[in-house]
Amino acid sequence: MTQQSTSIVLKSLSILLGLFFLFTGFMKISPYISKELHRDLRKHYVKYAKAFPMATMLDIRIPSKCSTT
User: Fold this and answer.
1) Is 11 within a domain?
2) Which residues contact 42 (CB under 8 A, 6 or more apart)?
3) Over the stretch 9-27, which tens digit does the pLDDT of each residue have?
């Protein structure tokens, strides 16, 4: 592989990975795509929100319960 093709592959992977994270993040905050999947993602967020490692260092509190169901 040449250096140019390696660069294209890495840029493509980073763009696709970024789009994946944007999509999953959108699904967490909005139920437009799938209400059931949104509910499950929010439920798992509640389980793992307590494990935010920088919360004590930044002196912030992240609410683990969502206001909408």
Assistant:
1) yes
2) 28, 66
3) 999 999 999 999 998 888 7
Residue 30 to residue 67: CA distance in whole angstroms? 12
Contacts of residue 46, defined as CB under 8 A and 6 or more positions apart, other chains included, come to 64, 65, 66
**Under a CB-based contact definition with an 8 Å cutoff, are residues 12 and 19 in contact?**
no
What is the rounded distance in angstroms from the CA atom of residue 58 to the CA atom of residue 22? 24
| Structural domain contains residue 67 | no
d(CA 32, CA 38): 9
pLDDT per residue over 44-60, tens digit each? 777 766 666 677 777 76
pTM over 0.70: no
